[in-house]
Amino acid sequence: MSANEDQEMELEALRSIYEGDESFRELSPVSFQYRIGENGDPKAFLIEISWTETYPQTPPIISMNAFFNNTISSAVKQSILAKLQEAVEVNLGTAMTYTLFEYAKDNKEQFMENHNPVNSTTSISNIISVETPNTAPSSKKKDKKEQLSKAQKRKLADKTDHKGELPRGWNWVDVVKHLSKTGSKDDE
């Protein structure tokens, strides 16, 4: 079987296996992304696998350069890529995209054991200020703007549903406290 026939068969298999799976994304017929972990999970990461022309006889290109992975240190990324590369060498010559995604899912905790979220906001703002030294007044305005921390954003996202709306009864504790305070004054 030629490499193209192998790729067509694997593509068909991947589409049927991951049909309806929100973590899987086909970027092109030879490039795929898979999110390992749930959406709000701080240890979730995204793997991108791209096939070369001679794949599966030659290794695919595995990348973790997606924006989703910005909070993961480069050392942890390199460690994950090295472990995936070992799995590639074992499976060379066979269809391995599904195997690699499953291997990453099964070993997620081990892969991310040394993960400490990197605060990418400060590095981005430093890059912006370094790249635009002539716009000093506008950068001062940006500094005054209050920004939410990652934890604050996550807390806000946890409170809202997928549409960004607060669920019904989200403030019932506050209402009960208020009523109990106002109600106790009337009793006296």
From TrEMBL:
Record-linked SUPFAM superfamilies: UBC-like (SSF54495)
Compositional bias (Basic and acidic residues): 155-166
Region (Disordered): 123-167
UniProt xrefs under Pfam families: RWD
Sequence ranges assigned to domain RWD in this UniProt record: 9-111
InterPro entries: RWD_dom (IPR006575), RWDD4 (IPR042770), UBQ-conjugating_enzyme/RWD (IPR016135)
Protein name: RWD domain-containing protein 4 isoform X1
Organism annotation: Ceratotherium simum simum
Top-level taxonomy: Eukaryota, Metazoa, Chordata, Craniata, Vertebrata
